[in-house]
Amino acid sequence: MRYESTRDRENKVTSAEAIMRGLSEDGGLFVPEVLPTLPAGALEELREMNYRQRAVYIMKLFLADYTVAELTDYVNRAYSPRGFDTPKIAPVRKLDGATHVLELWHGPTCAFKDMALQVLPYLLTAAVRKNGEEKQVCILVATSGDTGKAALEGFADVEGTRIMVFYPRDGVSDIQKLQMTSQEGTNVSVCAVRGNFDDAQSTVKEIFSDPALREQLAGSGWMLSSANSINWGRLLPQVVYYISAYCDLVNSGDIAMGEGVSFCVPTGNFGDILAGFYAMRMGLPVKKLICASNKNDVLTEFLRTGVYNRVREFYTTISPSMDILVSSNLERLIYELTDRDDVETAGYMAKLSTKGCYQVSDRVKSAMDGIFAAGSCDDEETKSVIARVFSRYGYLIDTHTAVACGVLEKYRAETGDDTPAIVVSTASPYKFCASVLEALGRTPESAGPELIAALENASQTAAPAPLKALLGKTARFNASYGKEELKEVVRNFLK
Ligand SMILES: *Cc1c(COP(=O)(O)O)cnc(C)c1O
């Protein structure tokens, strides 16, 4: 199976090329030429498997260039007991009869980004070899907080690669910042950007599409690639946990095989929920995908009205990984919902970049209505959800997961839909100690990793080991740059 660009269907590449290049040169994103479907009986087979086996089975449906033996090797190394603190890898926890939480933060950096970024380095370095490419790969990452650390952890000291991470200087939590700036490894670099996540992301996109820079770097033996969720190798491992969670609920007797479930997903760049959309298109019985936003509710408005308008105030919230106004992966959704009309998709994206705004056709809008619901929670609501869930279930959730729990409550109240639902939990509460403590009615008295012990005390739960290990670590990277300096920073890193 080949992949094609969302802005030019004739631009076709192999799966290995799509993963190696990250973004298509025409500015589009790579998507599978034909979306595979789950073969008859697949869910019955998958039920009997463990997480790693499920991952190999599902990924193989999309990756013609990789053998089962290769994928098995990558998955065993990625989802290993060294990196993940539970053999279930992505366990589902029951809150009440109809509400479950899919915990995606048991990996080395305690956020769901690990689910994909532990696998991506293997997929990517193999892709480079499969393409007969001699150059070394430099990974550039724009991060709203969690991707950066997960990518650093995935690529640190991987031979033939370097990785450079850009994060918004004032847009990440103390713990997130220290996680990144204390990263070890000889091939890594971390830069603060004076601006917000959209500034960092749009500059990285510009760097990718600068032919002069590309040529210059090629001359010195380097090619650029992306570990952001615009890379197909990032999305694909995420499809796995939707299907896996469904199988787990069948196995636990909470749902019957074939019964519909809904997923409620805290959303920023639209990568996570898009993986759920692909799982649904493959044949997973999904009733609704509920898209949860914080006060930056551009997606809520879009899914409700069909108008995407990024020209609006940007808010810094207590769920920083969702502080995004331009959700890159929406382009892949639109491509599917226009029935793969590259001209229509490219037209919307052109309007987005020139006018900051576009409205999808009635056909796309009504297709969205059948699949998605959407809602948002501001910071006050988010904190009250954390307190409520903790007092009701003794279960501590982070600020992003809380947005999704809050949106699910509102959705149920508004629609009366009581379909069993799975809230996708994207981070450990210990990544956002200060906000979680405040939600529990405590006043944080210190900052950074010292708060971990305070939260352990307040909640009588245990922090994940990798976060506890941050205490006493110091930053290796302290520089911050304006966006106009970033090209030069990349050049210098690869000298
Ligand atoms: C990245 C992230 C999100 C948003 O996921 P997208 O794929 O960008 O929509 C939500 N929560 C957390 C904790 C994250 O790290």
What does this 3D model show about the protein?
With 495 residues, the chain is α/β, with parallel strands linked by helices. It has a domain at 88-111 and 235-434: Rossmann fold (3-Layer(aba) Sandwich), CATH 3.40.50.1100. Helix content is 44%, strand content 16%. β1 and β2 (8-13) form a beta hairpin. Pyridoxal-5'-phosphate binds at residues 111-113, 146, 229, 266-272, 321-322, 400, 426-427.
Please give the number of β-strands: 16
Unreliable stretches covering 5 or more consecutive residues: none
Specify the helix fraction band.
40-55%
Through-space gap between termini: 37 Å
The average pLDDT score comes to: 95
Overall 3D geometry?
Answer: globular
Contiguous helical run count: 22
Radius of gyration: 21 Å
What fraction strand? 15-25%
Assigned CATH architecture of the domain at 88-111 and 235-434: 3-Layer(aba) Sandwich
